[in-house]
């Protein structure tokens, strides 16, 4: 049909729907930062922490920003039964997951092997390696239901061969190398199914409160310490690329 005049309204532009994003270890530090940033973008956030109260606190912060598209869940990454229950609970909330962010990992400091207790070493390796494997395994069916599935792994420069500049116990290094090995294997395995596996290997970085004044004022010039602000922007840049663009990893120069 020919328009009657030149004032016909243009078709309404369809805005892309927000993503459904699962973030482990989101009760504090960089996981919290990611959760707040995804929520500000209008994405639905399913966040987990070993301590449910911590996850609920971040969920309340997100609601305070005006978004009710948030779910707080408990997940102890070192406990296979807890991971399975976490995945089952997510399946009751949504029929698909667009982005899985494997952020959760237990930090362990120490200058030599003897400086950490056996139980702490075991928990560090289990939460980082076993947890990442199991969360990815159990959420993969929901990722495959998405038309834009991404797995984002926050690894660390400690997971790179020859890097010894992160102030961590050897068990943390071992765990991060395990994560890196998993990512290297999953990337070619999942690519034919349309799942992108994106890994980030940041050095130690500053993480100002994204709800505080330092978020926008912390220096980001050359020679400054890497900030969580820049790291978040790398994550968003990678997942926002067209599906023919596969950014496998971000490697960062250690400047301090």
TrEMBL record:
Signal sequence segment: none
**Any idea which GO molecular function terms this record carries?**
oxidoreductase activity
Task: Report if keyword tRNA-binding is assigned.
Answer: no
Q: Which InterPro entries match?
A: NAD(P)-bd_dom_sf, SDR_fam
Q: Name one GO cellular component term.
A: membrane
Q: Which Pfam families match?
A: adh_short
Q: What keywords is this UniProt entry annotated with?
A: Oxidoreductase
CDD domains reported in the protein's UniProt record: SDR_c
Q: What does the similarity note say?
A: Belongs to the short-chain dehydrogenases/reductases (SDR) family.
What is the protein's name according to its record?
Short-chain dehydrogenase
């Amino acid at each position: 049909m020919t328009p009657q005049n030149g004032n016909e309204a243009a078709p309404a532009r369809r805005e892309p729907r927000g993503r459904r994003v699962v973030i482990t270890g989101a009760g504090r530090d960089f996981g919290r930062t990611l959760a707040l940033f995804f929520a500000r973008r209008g994405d639905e956030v399913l966040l987990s922490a070993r301590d449910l109260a911590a996850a609920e606190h971040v969920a309340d912060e997100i609601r305070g920003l005006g978004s009710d598209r948030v779910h707080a869940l408990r997940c102890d990454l070192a406990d296979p039964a807890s991971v399975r229950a976490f995945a089952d609970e997510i399946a009751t909330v949504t029929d698909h997951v667009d982005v899985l962010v494997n952020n959760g990992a237990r930090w362990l400091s120490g200058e030599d092997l003897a400086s950490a207790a056996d139980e702490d070493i075991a928990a560090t390796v289990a939460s980082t390696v076993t947890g990442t494997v199991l969360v990815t395994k159990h959420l993969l069916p929901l990722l495959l239901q998405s038309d834009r599935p991404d797995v984002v792994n926050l690894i660390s420069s400690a997971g790179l061969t020859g890097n010894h500049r992160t102030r961590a116990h050897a068990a943390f290094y071992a765990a991060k190398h395990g994560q890196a090995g998993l990512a290297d294997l999953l990337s070619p395995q999942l690519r034919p199914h349309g799942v992108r596996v994106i890994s980030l290997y940041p050095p130690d970085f500053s993480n100002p409160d994204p709800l505080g004044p330092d978020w926008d004022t912390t220096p980001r010039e050359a020679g400054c310490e890497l900030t969580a602000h820049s790291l978040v922007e790398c994550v968003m840049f990678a997942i926002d690329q067209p599906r023919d663009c596969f950014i496998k990893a971000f490697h960062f120069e250690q400047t301090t």
